[in-house]
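Quick sanity check, Thioredoxin domain-containing protein:
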Amino acid sequence: MTDEQILTKKERHELHRQEKDIMRDMAARRRVLKRTAVWGLVIGVLAGSVFLIYNYGNSPNTTAMLVDAVNPTDYIFGTPASNVILIEYGDFQCPACAQYEPIVQKVRADYADKIAFVYRHFPLGQHKNAKITAYASEAAGKQGKFWEMHDMIYDGQNAWANLSKDKVKDVMIKYAEAIGLDLKLFEEQIDSGEVKDKVQSDNDGGLKAGVNATPTFILNGKKIQPRSYDEFKNFIEQELAANS
């Protein structure tokens, strides 16, 4: 597998079109939510809508995904011993991932004592800064601050997404300083083979499982497509009840 996923011109055009559709749809939904004072960000379209949608729980044809088991290299938020595991395959430069992030952070916080939440990297080839930001999160993780860096990168996506790779790295160093990392060690680790291998391993595992878009959420081996916090909650509560 090469470092970059190779896309044809037609595929790149389609992905660009999908991202514009996603952002336009999200903007319209945010306006509706603001007028009606409804909490939360409701997202009607996932990036990369070409993948198959699996109905969870309501369909006899629910399809399992052969995802890699949680392992010591994964960063887990919540309860590592839980038998309910929610995995996100994400790309830090993906606009839809950033739009989902406030909902995902609330899910993490509300279910931290009940489930294990795992983030795995799936940097898309058309996002030039997806890998360097993934490396930054892993380098921060080496100093025990993966989730702090993860959240800061997503929160600041608009500020760094269109910068050059060198300038993005400078932004990541500023983030590292803000969360109290040893900067010398961070700069060494962001370029280390170990960090790059971890990101590639996540990516390869996602491809093997059939992931081809971000964000992709997998709950106990089943792909789900929640469009709101309440839908996340319903999926999780079903799985908690089934595993109680």
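Posting the structure with no commentary besides this: Residues 47-242 form a domain with the Glutaredoxin fold (CATH 3.40.30.10).
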